[in-house]
Amino acid sequence: MDLMMVAFVESFKYVGHLIPVACLRIFLGGYYLKHAIASFQSDFLVKAYLAEDIRNHLPQSTAPEWFRWFLENAVIPNWQVFAISLAVAQLFIGASYVIGYLVRPAAIAGVVLSMGLMGAIGVGGVHGSGNLIGISLQATTFMLVLHLILGWIGAGRCLGLDYYFYKRHRGFWW
Prior knowledge:
Elements: H1 2-15, H2 19-41, H3 49-57, H4 65-75, H5 79-99, H6 103-121, H7 137-153, H8 162-168
Helix pairs in contact: 2-5, 5-6, 6-7
């Protein structure tokens, strides 16, 4: 534990220029944690909100046919599995970003979530006033870019636990 504290203080010295990126990482982690906790506390996991959102959105979606087929034949019938997976993934991403541990795997999970949402929305976005769970294509693209940047930089090395492991066990995940 003492070595972790020393590594945490050293992270300011060697990667202190990443403090704004670390603040962005922590803010994004809080965003994901808030949504994960809300999913667990509400009836999102027991009522078919996800399936209904997808079912209502599909007629106006510009998603590729193969992805629309996947949504209709895999996600809607198994909505509870996907709802739980979504909530657990949000919890993992949020906790990882807040404490700065395993930020790169969490960024990969964030990219997968963003790509799935972009696929559901479609390339052309949604025409009309409503869209899938109230998220626009531009917001989803922005989140995708944020995850890519945080993963590429290794944002957990500043104000996070990843610096301790990066210093001792160099590898892709840190």
